[in-house]
Batch of 4 targets.
Target 1
Amino acid sequence: MAARKKTPTPRKRAAPSKRPAKGRKRGSLAPGSRARGLAAGETALALESPEVATLAAEVRTRCGAPIGAYREPLSGRPLLLATVPLAALQPTPFQRDLSPTHTQRLARRIDESGAFLDPLIVVRGEDGKFWTPNGRHRLAAAKVLGLRQITVLISPDADLAYRILALNTEKAHNLRDRSLEVIRMARGLAEGRRRGSEQTWSEQFEAPELLTLGLLYETSGRFAGGAYSAFLRKVDRFSDRPLARSLREREGYAARLLGIDAEVKRIIAGLQSRGFRSPYLRNYVVARINPVRWLKPRKAGAAPLMPMGQALTRMSAAARGFKLDSVSHRDLAWIALGAAAEE
């Protein structure tokens, strides 16, 4: 009897892979659908132009040298390129603190390259002096190198000093530096009686919790802001009140958080006395007393999960009622695993 031939089982066809369109690489950025900004012939600007003539004269009175002028290609705003003595410049009062280590390293790199190629952005400050909103370390490095003059791009638009923070925060500042920059800028705006609320300056402030954390870092430079940032992101929002009034309200929130942190320190000390030595004790305790811990965060601009005042009241009560004997080493192990995953 002849063996029957097996009918071959048809192979499943693999699903077609999703490939990027021909001629376009995966992850590439598509160009804008319409052209923006000035054409080449529209950018040139003479030093005698009324838009920059006053600035050029002011540079000369400060023993500097105007070099040229142009209209910025995106917005068309005028900019003056010049060199000025280092003594004529000062950083804006709301920048992050100066790092001597970073300044020395930067000065060495500039010296090794043999050229200072990155001009400082400069505006006329409220005190009439030239302010640089984004060049504190480069200015300090130039002083270390003993430079007589430094190259600057001067804008007649004084408010650029505040708007440029949105570019500065793209750099790798830590949470403390970013928060201090934001709160110092907010104070400067409030003291200068700028119109508008926190919401008006939301792009410059980047995130509402940075204002609250900035107040906390001003009071306590070693405040553990990272432990509270997840809580604040869910309940902190920009206010529609005038800036000076909203800052006073935030000062009250910051004071309450400092009181909560004092309770957290007490709990940590109690846990340590029981033999717990994990570096994640603070994160664990703050997560345990966080009243919105298990609530899914909402999109930016949406209402908070809970009003800030109510959240702080619940958090404070949870801290006062914290039971030390409810903590196990297994709980801390899970916290450590979560922190490692985030890193």
Target 2
Amino acid sequence: MTRHCMPRLASLVAVVAVAIVAVVIARLSVAYETVHRIHTLARASRSRSTTTRTMELRSSPSSALDVDRLILGASPLAGIYAPSSDDVANATVAEALALGFTRFDTAPHYGLGLSERRLGAALRAALGESEANARVKVYTKVGRVMKPIDEVTEEEKASSVEWGNVPGHDGCIFPEAPRDVLPVLDYASGGFERSHADSLMRLGLDKVEGLRIHDAETPERFEAAMSGGGVAALARLRAQGKIAEVSLGMNDAAYVLRMIRESAPGTFDSVMMAGSWNLIDQDGYEVLLECQERNIAVHNAGVFASGLLVGGAHYKYAPAPEHIKAKTAQWQALANAYDVPLPAVALAFALAPEIITLCAVGVKSPSEVAQNVAWLRAARDVNPQLWIDAKSQGLLGDHIPTPSLSP
């Protein structure tokens, strides 16, 4: 090698070395930021856990026990567990409207769009199209896109189709769901936008009140919603006036809490938390405190513990285990002792915290609508001593707030 080439080589080596060092520093910086973010979230979580926070209760519990606090859950309109019909859906929705319901909750997931179609048709039949758009507030959900079978790719069939919700497959609880579409999981921005547009077509309405991120309760779904632009897409729809609320619709309280805490303040207007705040399960306690702190309205769903508290046999979408049946029997005995229907006790408990603004009840017939309204009225007469007895019997923890007792 000639001497005049050596300085050039040395310069080149120096440039490469500097570039390598820059890359290493950049990667270390990213790693540091990631670790710092994780530690910050962990410290915030520990701080919240160790700080004493008090659940705010309604000063007058009966103020919440009115029909305008109820949301009609429309999954049963799609024939959950057993077939239903358009006529039954029409009659059920008409009865709900007649008794004062103004809010309805549905999802593409319920019968692969069947619930949305039946709900929208029933609202338009009862009120007319313009009145339906003006008078009621409908919430639906995003996270699954209903695609015609011939539009679904082989890759999607292998990785993204939720086969357990397809008729003819194990686990499908909507036997009347259409067979010409497939539910494709999509928590990214494009999926949320398409799901919203498709829902409006199925409902036959100009708008919905809110969109809830549905079942983002696996690491993959959570990450797609947070990093794939899904949450940001809902914020854009709200900014454009196409929806009034950005919301969540989830069963797992831990994932609800995580999504709230890892999002910027003001991201969520409401949260529908299912099965985590009822007489059997109070896993949503920390969620309620967090929502109270952030002024996020809570819409409580699953208040009858998957129907167990109204005589059903399922709990969290599966046959109830023996220890849960035993706890339900204890609650039934306590309700009997005070001569009040157990579902009325459940509703009184479900609406006690101030932050719970609405309570969802799933109904599949006009008589069930009327029965829920009757239980709500009976909830006003629950004897305060019942809650004292419930805690003394170990049915509720001492820290759990009740309609007439502070935590």
Target 3
Amino acid sequence: MTSMAEPVFIIGGSRTGSEMLKKMLSATDSLDFVDELFLRCPRWLHTDLQANIDRHVGDLDAEGALQRLLDLLYSGIPFGWFWSAIDRELDREMLRKELLDQPLSIHSIFCGIMKVHAEMRGKRRVGAKFPLHYSYVDDLLRWFPDCKLIHTTRNPKAVYASQASKYAKNDYNRLARGWIRFQQFVHINIQTSWTARVHQRLQDHPNYCLVRYEDVVGNPEEELRRICSFANLEFDAEMLYPKKRGSSHQSIGEGRGVDEGSLERWRTAISPLTANLIGLLHKADAKRFGYTS
């Protein structure tokens, strides 16, 4: 039977290895992960689920709110991959029954989604990757005092290289690529500073664990055993062989395992000037995360 005890949440910024870690930890028979839900995030970034509920559902205590909520969730309106694939990700009738006899709130909706998602996959524990933007991490601690927060991070130079390569496509003209790369440069610099402050504030919290992408790729078994110990999970050797996905730099194919080449690829993907500028802007932040180059 699925339990809401000790949910596991992967938090952090984009391009930090969160998807790889989610696949690794999902290899266990006990733990399920819901994909990104965008429950709450800054309005300048995306329209989150809370804003869509306010706009399309209204008062969650009003008559007919559950029906309007379900219509919204399955409408394709909410932002993100999960909501575009919700018909196969989440059984509507199971969710309706789960939410039927309880007060509706963004918290109870989140719990219902995680529980139904896990039950559909025969998993006993619930979890989610990036359910909220990292700036709302305190909500997770307030809603789930026994949760396990895994904060994924990565060298900001590599994060920028990956993010820029993802969005600045080669078939765009030079001006468009330059503008997109500038936007992503701003985004990643904001992300680096913000997540460093999150880490500084929570690093001594017993529910919190920092996980560096470089450590997972460089020494996966040791790092996964550490993460499993923190999250009260049983280590499974299958965790070491997640299905690979194409990176923002290249197509990987259908292999399994970790891509060790991703550790240094940023050095040829961005200019030395850009790398030095990021290093200068985030000297203190990088030190907080344990990066020296």
Target 4
Amino acid sequence: MKRRLLSGSFAILILVLGLGIGFNRIQSAAAFSALFQPEDLLVRGAQLYDDWAAVTKSQPPAGNHPIWARQSTNTRSGPDTWQCVSCHGWDYQGKDGAYRSGSNYTGFPGVYRPEAQSETSLRAALTGDLDPEHDFSAFLENDDISALVKFLQEGLIDDNEFIDPVSLKVLDGDLQNGKQRYDSSCASCHGADGQSISFRFEGQTVVLGTLAEQDPWRFLHRTRFGTARAPDMTIGYQLGWTAQDGRDVLLYAQTFPTGREAPLGPSLPDEGGLADQPGGPAGNFLTGILTALAAMATSLGFAIILGGVLIGVLLLVVWLMRGRKQ
């Protein structure tokens, strides 16, 4: 009798905990669906392309990406080799674009295709079906694979014909339009001359003018789609900027001081850990993500506490029933 009672108690406990975990997963899935509408998925995909480990708040495996051994010209190592952009470039054109030479050269192809790419073929490329060493399914949830696919299908822009390959200056841009958009959306944080915030870039501390001057394609990608390290940043995609608007803002930023002429402001990291971000209500969908994740964690913690209380209640029932038998 005692054994059957204990078995029944533990069965009830397992059932309750299972229901709690299942409910938590349903909440998580619902939160993801609510936060990531189709247009938001594209933005998340762009940030995953930039640095999926920072977006998912995880660590890539130790050592280099398996495919990195197929080249010998780029001397980067470790986490950098796991980023999509390290192989395919900020202009998405790999060996045929800005990474055609220099220290970033790998010889790997780009992901930009003028013709439409099917969801099936892109998923196959990301999950190792086309190349077993290019399998990210162990590190990215299915929703994140979907976000990357959406970005690769709909978010890639060819800016190369608008940027001089030698001077890296924007060609045929509208400086006044760039100034107007920068002043209305960016200057409040970065300052009128782009020097209020500094950040790490290629091992150096820089400001906005430096990035615009040295890596215009990175500037365009991040001002359009944002970065996981600055979730509160206003981005062109959500402001409705066209591709040309983004290039006009870049043109204006290329007139800024590079940061060598004056003391730098507070720094945001571009390599290594995440920058601490100010709290407060969600100002955009990325901060909403953080809020939702915190809510999920709170929900899971509540389920654990509830499980502990139920264990105590069941043990108390067993103790009382044993007392009655005695």
